[in-house]
Design brief:
Layout: H1 3-22, H2 24-39, H3 42-49, H4 55-79, H5 82-99, H6 107-127, H7 136-155, H8 166-173, H9 184-198, H10 203-214, H11 219-226, H12 230-248
Helix pairs in contact: 1-2, 1-4, 2-4, 5-6, 5-7, 6-7, 7-9, 10-12, 11-12
Length: 249
C-alpha cells in the first residue's frame, strides 16, 4: 500500500467514525474537503506540527469547523449577502492598513491602497478553497496579506521591513501580548504563517523549535534528551531561528 493510499484509508476510517458520531450527511459534506486538503499536504502539515495528532483528530477538527462555519461561508462565497460582506470588508481593511506599514507610503496612498486591496482580497476569498481546519478570520487574514504583498509587488514598492527580528519571532512563539498587532485575528494569522514556516525546517531544526516553544523544554533539557552537547543545541536553535527569519522575510 502506497503512502497516498494509506492516508486515504485513514481518512475513510475517520469518516466512518464521523458518520457514526455526527451523522452521514456531515461525513459526506466534508469528504471532498478532506481530499483536497490532503492533496495540498495540509494533513501532513497538521501531523508534523502536532506530533501526537492523528488523521482522525484532523478529520474531526474539519468536521467541527464545518459545523461552525459552513452557513457563514455560504453567505460569503455563494450568496454574498450585504449583511455578511460589509463587516467582512471592514475586517479586511483593518488587516490591510497596518500590514501596508511595511512599505514607505504616504498616508493618502496607504489609505487608497487599503480600499483597493480590500476589494481584491474579497474576490480572492470568494474564489479560494476554505480548508475548514483553521479559524475563518485567520485564514481570510492570511489571504489578505498575500494579496497585499502581490499588489505592492505590482506597484514596484520596496519593503521597508525586509526581515523579521529574532526577538519578534520569540514573542510570537511565546504568545506575548507585546506583538506588533493587537488585533487577535491578525495575531492568529501571524501564528499560522509561523507554523507554515516551521513546517519548512529540517527535522532536526523542527524538533528543537517544537520542544522549546511548544512543549516548554529548556535547551539544556533538549540537549540531554538528544544526547548531544548544550552548545550544539544552542547552535541548532540559533540556526533554526535564522532559517525562519529567511523564510518569513
Amino acid at each position: 500500500m502506497s503512502q497516498g493510499e494509506d492516508q486515504s484509508s485513514l481518512i475513510e476510517k475517520a469518516l466512518q467514525q464521523v458518520q457514526v458520531e455526527l451523522g452521514g450527511a456531515l461525513a459526506d459534506a466534508i469528504k471532498p474537503i478532506l481530499y483536497i486538503n490532503n492533496q495540498r499536504c495540509r494533513i501532513r502539515q497538521y501531523k508534523s506540527l502536532n506530533p501526537t495528532g492523528t488523521v482522525q483528530d484532523y478529520v474531526f477538527q474539519v468536521a467541527n469547523y464545518y459545523v461552525m462555519d459552513h452557513d457563514y461561508l455560504d453567505d460569503v462565497q455563494r450568496y454574498k449577502t450585504r449583511e455578511t460582506w460589509e463587516p467582512l470588508l471592514e475586517k479586511i481593511r483593518q488587516w490591510t492598513y497596518p500590514f501596508l506599514g511595511r512599505w514607505n507610503l504616504t498616508e493618502t496612498t496607504r489609505t487608497s491602497f487599503t480600499l483597493e486591496i480590500a476589494q481584491e482580497a474579497g474576490l480572492e476569498i470568494i474564489r479560494s478553497h476554505y480548508p475548514y481546519d483553521s479559524e475563518f478570520d485567520g485564514w481570510a487574514c492570511i489571504i489578505t496579506h498575500h494579496v497585499c504583498s502581490k499588489f505592492m509587488k505590482r506597484f514596484g514598492a520596496s519593503v521597508v521591513m525586509d526581515h523579521i527580528d529574532l526577538s519578534e519571532a520569540d514573542e510570537w512563539f511565546l504568545n506575548s501580548d507585546d506583538l506588533l498587532q493587537s488585533d487577535p485575528e491578525i495575531v492568529f494569522a501571524k501564528k499560522q504563517l509561523l507554523l507554515d514556516a516551521v513546517a519548512q525546517l529540517s527535522e532536526i531544526q523542527k524538533s528543537v523549535i517544537w520542544r522549546f516553544y511548544f512543549e516548554g523544554w529548556s535547551l539544556p533539557q533538549i540537549a540531554n534528551h538528544s544526547g548531544i552537547s548544550t552548545n550544539t543545541i544552542y547552535k541548532r536553535h540559533f540556526d533554526a531561528l535564522k532559517q525562519l527569519r529567511k523564510i518569513l522575510g
